[in-house]
Amino acid sequence: MRFVTCLLASVAFCSLLSLPAYAELDVARLKQSIETSFESNYPKLDALYKDIHAHPEIAFQEEKTAAKLAAEMRALGFEVTEKVGKTGLVAIYKNGNGPTIMVRTELDALPMEEKTGLPYASRDKQNYNGRETFVDHSCGHDIHMASWVGTAKTLVAMKGQWHGTLMFIAQPAEEEVAGAKAMLADGLFTRFPKPDVGFALHDGAMAYGNVTYRVGIGSSTVNGLLIKFRGRGGHGSAPQNTIDPVMMAARFVVDVQSVVSREKDPTEFGVVTVGAIHSGTAGNIIPDQALVVGTIRSFKPQVRDKMLAGITRTAKAVAAMAGAEEPEINMDEGAKAVVNDPAVVGDAEKVLKAAFGDKFFTTPPGTASEDYSEYVSAGVPSMFFNIGVYDPERVAAAGNGGPPLPPNHSPQFAPVPKPTIQTGVTAMTLAVLSAFDQRAKGQ
Ligand SMILES: [Zn+2]
Ligand SMILES: [Zn+2]
Questions:
Q1: What's the 189 CA to ligand 1 centre distance in angstroms?
Q2: CB atoms near residue 276 (< 10 Å)
Q3: Which 3 state secondary structure label does DSSP give 347?
Q4: Which one of 109, 231, 374, 434 is CB 3.0 to 4.6 Å from 243, fit for a cystine?
Q5: Residue 222: in which H helix or E strand, if any?
Q6: How many Å lie between the centroid of ligand 2 and the Cα of residue 106?
Q7: For residue 139, how far is its CA from the centre of ligand 1 (angstroms)?
C-alpha cells in the first residue's frame, strides 16, 4: 500500500516517487507544506521545549517528562503505554495496513549545572548516587523530544498520505546506556509490534539547518575498564618488604597505550583512556591496592577484541613483573556501535538530499556511544542521523578562530530552539514518509 490519497500539498511528492526526474522540485514543495504546518504548531512546541528544558530529569527518574510526552501523544490520538522499562513510554498510532515505523527519543538529562544564562535555564536538582545535584539537558535530549512530538503532529495531520503504524518510543537513561536494554527487557518488541524500520536523531555543535548521516557504523562501541591491582602494603621507607600497586598502575597506564599504537591496526579506530586512578592515602604508606578506571572505544568487534586481549595481557604482565597476584579485570560492554542500514539510508537519502541539498551530507562516524544500537541488534533496520543547533554565523566564526562552540555535555550547550526543532521535524517526517512509501512499494 503506498500513498493512496494525495492531498493537495503533496500531489507533487506522490508523483516524485514515480517520476524521480522531478525529485528535487517535488520534495521541496512537500518540505514547504511540512514547514507551514510546523509554523502553526511551533508556539506549543516552543512552550513544551522550554518547560522540559527548565525541568530536566536524570536517568530513570524522568517521570514528569514522560508524563508530559504521554499527554501530548494521547491528545494526538496515540495509544500510550507508560512505565515501559521503568520510565519509558510507547505511543502507537494505527492508520490502516502497512509497515510499522519506529521513531525514538530519549528522556534523560545530565547531573550537572547549567551555565548558559538562558531565561529558561534549569535550576532544578535531583538525587544522583545519593547526592543532590543540579540537572541540565546539556545533551539536547529536550530538542529531540520537541522534534519527536512535532513529527508526530505532522504525520497525524498528513495521515491521508501514508498507511501503517507509527510506533513512537521515549526511552529513559540513554546517558547511562541502560534505557534501551530496560525497554527491550520489558517487552518492547513482544508486547508491542516489532518495527520494520527505526529512526532516531541527535543534535550537535554544528549549524542549524544541517543534517548529517552515515551509511554503516555511526558511533562507537564502549567497554568500561576497571582493573584492581593487588599488592602488599607497607612503609614507604622499606619498599623491599612490599609489592607496590601504585607502581603497577603507573606502568599499566603507560604500557597500555602500546596496545593502541603497536597492536591495533593504525587505520582502525580504537581508544583506551584511563580517567581515574584510586590508590593510597599518604606519602609514607605503600598501599595494598590500586584501582584503575577507564573507557575503551572502538567501531569494529575485531578491533575491540584485539584491544581487550592486549589490555588483559598488559595488566597481567604488569602484575607478574611486580611479583603480585593476578589483577581483577572487568571490561563489560556498555553499548555497541550504531550501524545504519544501507537500504533504509538509501531510501531516506534521496528524499532528504532533495529537501536539504548540500546541507544534508555524510560525516565520519562519531567516537561517542549511543544505546540506540540495542534496537539495531534486536533486528530493527535503522537510520540514525544528526542535526545542528547553532547559528551558522557563530559556527563560521568558530571555524575562523573565534570562540569555540560549546559541545554536548558542556554547561554552556545552548541550541537555538526554533530552527533546530524545525530541522528535526522536517527531516524526521520526510525520513518516515520515505520508509512508508518504500515498504509499501515492496508489498
Ligand atoms: Zn549525552
Ligand atoms: Zn545524547
A1: 25
A2: 10
A3: helix
A4: 231
A5: strand 221-230
A6: 8
A7: 4
Residue 140 CA to ligand 2 centre (angstroms): 6
Question: What's the pTM value of the predicted model, to 2 decimals?
Answer: 0.84
Instruction: State in Å: Cα 143 to ligand 1 middle.
Output: 12
Cell numbers 566564526 correspond to 397
Answer whether residue 22 shows pLDDT above 90.
no
- The environment of the single-atom ion ligand 1, i.e. residues with CB closer than 5 A, is 139
Q: If you write DSSP's letter for every residue of 368-391 in order, what string do you get?
A: S--TTHHHHHTT--EEEEEEEEE-
Encode pLDDT of 159-204 as tens digits: 988 999 999 999 999 998 899 999 999 999 999 999 999 999 999 9
- Answer yes or no: are the C-beta atoms of 175 and 139 closer than 8 Å: yes
Are the C-beta atoms of residues 135 and 159 closer than 8 Å to each other? no
Residue 103 C-alpha from the chain's centroid: 13
| Ligand 2 center to 414 CA (angstroms) | 14
Residues paired with residue 103 on neighbouring β-strands, in sequence order? 168, 199
Burial degree of 400 (CB within 10 A; 0-12, 13-18, 19+) = exposed
**Backbone torsions φ then ψ of 41, nearest 5 degrees:** -80, -20
HSE-CB at 84 with a 13 A cutoff on CA atoms is 23
How is residue 232 annotated by DSSP?
B
Q: What angle do CA 193, 338, 128 make, to 5 degrees?
A: 85
Element (H, E) at 289: strand 289-298
